[in-house]
Amino acid sequence: MSNHLRLILLLHNHQPIGNFDGVFEQAYRDSYLPFLETFEQYDRLKLALHVSGPLMEWLEHHHPEYVDRVARHVAAGRIEIIGGAYYEPILTMIPSRDRIGQITKYTQWLEQRLGANVRGMWIAERVWEQALTADLSRAGIQYTFLDDYHFKSAGLREEQLSGYYVTEDDGNTLAVFPGSEKLRYLIPFADPEQTVQYLRQLAETTSDPVVVFGDDGEKFGTWPETKRHVYADGWLTRFFDALVTNQDWLHVTTPGEAFCNTLPAGKTYLPEGSYREMTEWALPTERKLDYEHLQHEMEKDPRWQRISGFMRGGFWRNFKVKYPEANEMYARMMELSTRLDDSVNEGHSGELIEQARTELYQGQCNCSYWHGAFGGIYLPHLRNAVYSHLIAADNLLEQATGKKESWVHAEAKDLNFDMRQELRLANDQLVAYLAPAMGGQLYEFDVRNVRHNLAAALTRRPESYHERVQRGTAEQEEETSSIHDRVVFKHEGLDQRLQYDPNSRKSLLDHFYDHNVTLEEIADGLAVERGDFVESAYDARLRRNPGRIQAQMTRTGLAFNKTVQITKGVSLQAGGSSLEIVYLLEGLPTDHDLHFGVEFNFAGLPAGAEDRYFYSGDGDRLGQLQTRLDLENALAIGMVDEWLGINLKLTTNQPTCFWTFPVETVSQSEGGFELVHQSVVVLPHWFVRGDQDGRWSVTMSLDIDTRAAQTRTDSMAEIMAN
């Protein structure tokens, strides 16, 4: 063998903020522990390891012995610890100050706990923009890792992707290693000898190459079917044996050793991007389908390999357009980051500020801000966790800046970066965000002491993979395959459950329906909208009184081709745990009725559990939260989530009909296609007729009772104190 090849094995182990404890434990048992145990048997091999902050904190708490074992290998020079931003944010999604803060915070932790000399870092989802170079360099990072796709997008050829390249921004330099997409698909799915043959070919055709395999550690045991394949069937042992057998020419090394012992392959500037699959997921659904169809048509054309190298997918930031719910989380996060920075600049410091910073960083964890082969934004527990940390940061900032007694505050500004004003009503118990330009909808509703956003619902929309759901064919793979290639249905009849919403799933959406419309038609999306109010712009103003604020929103529009004006007021008072909602309709006919309804969506209250249920105004249980209810002449309806410790009650001042039904999405995760409960719709509706002046009004009160949660918290505090 005339040439030697350096191979860097880099594992990225990660679990997101908010994932279930059992998922962490299973991943530890199925992937992290058995991989380390197998690796320990091969003292001639080396490894680069990145463990995200959320996972590392969990390991330190639940399995410190594992962390100790890793530290011993770090001391022995067998494992190089790769740093990163502490809570695994998409770096391009957060401000520069938070990028540097998260990177340096995690580097300090890794150095103190593991004795690591952190010089390299993992970039979450390899989402890259050139301006990151300066921040990484200022945070003390010397090298990082991106996909070969980034380099090919910059114009480099496959044969040039050996070693590392230097890049620069604003006079700051950084070394960047290209990770091999070929190896990502070979390891661990192909026979180890195929990987060795591929590496041997590179060694024979390239001068002293450095090749990087960098990918998820979960593919070694946690991904479907991989535990049996990697460990029970001995794939990992055979792979390590092959590396040792060929070590006369194949040297398994660390990034630090490669960085110190080889010269840069050159200099390059990399366009924005991520790994190839991510750029495809970021495309709008119609364009994603066009891309898939074109690929299917062209993949057998001998020119395809040459053409495909010039094709680009979408831009990661457009996930905030594809999923407006991601933009809502992002805008809330940015608001809190700015408030934290302003508070520090105003001289506030101390434990509360640092706690708020940690909560903010945790709320920047990337997984719920996008969607691809993993559940991502479709998983309510991940979205709820992000909001929980952001609301906690909000609470801490209020304390740190001196707000301790009952208070109420309102502001009007562009809060979600759409160049239109939103309204924020807040007191010491609740926070409500309203979007006058989007039908006056209530798009965020935070309950402070349980750190929960009741409006964090998700709208059902088309996804490119719904084509496969509609075909209804589950391909049972005979051999272990990548999650990108698997088609598995976790529930039956998903093709019958596909449904798309005509409007966003928020609250205070104003509908006009035909008189004879049924609950089933409403729930199944078959009802015809007879007004133009749902997401149309309302005029808005804030009214302030001592101890009380009101957002007043007005629109003149059409209902059944008649001109109608709707004015709705949303009020909040200091120390209160209720929203008062008043509707005034004007211009109504005085000789016949119009069918009017107000839609509420309540999120984060799961279905299918006995301790989550509806109840009547008299306190009688009406069924679990997935129940379709059609109530007549009621004055109230309530919802309880005993686990969360919250009781919601919607009360009206006149007899009301209530419809309820669940909103469920058909979405994709690493385990297959599944049905996920997203929100509960409560839709009070009336047959309204104008008085002699053509007017009709109703007052509703949305009361939030969290005494159960507070009692539980107090009891836990007492136990801890004793």
Overview of the structural elements:
This protein has 722 residues and is α/β, with parallel strands linked by helices. 32% of the residues lie in helices and 29% in strands. It contains 21 helices and 28 strands. The strands form four sheets. Strands 17, 18, 19, 20, 21, 22, 23, 24, 25, 26, 27 and 28 form a twelve-stranded antiparallel beta sheet that branches. β25 and β26 form a beta hairpin. The longest helix is centred in the middle third of the chain and has 22 residues. The N and C termini lie far apart (69 Å).
Low-confidence segments = 474-479
**Shape type:** globular
Count of separate structural domains: 2
SSE-based structural type: alpha/beta
Averaging pLDDT over every residue, what do you get?
94
What fold name stands as the CATH topology of the largest domain? Beta-galactosidase, Chain A, domain 5
Percent of residues in β-strands: 25-35%
- DSSP summary: helix tally: 21
Q: What characterizes the major β-sheet?
A: 12 strands, antiparallel
**Helix proportion range:** 25-40%
At the first level of CATH, what is the class of the largest domain? Mainly Beta
Question: How far is the N terminus from the C terminus?
Answer: 69 Å
Shape-level CATH architecture of the largest domain: Distorted Sandwich
Q: What is the total tally of β strands?
A: 28
Rounded to the nearest angstrom, the radius of gyration is 28 Å
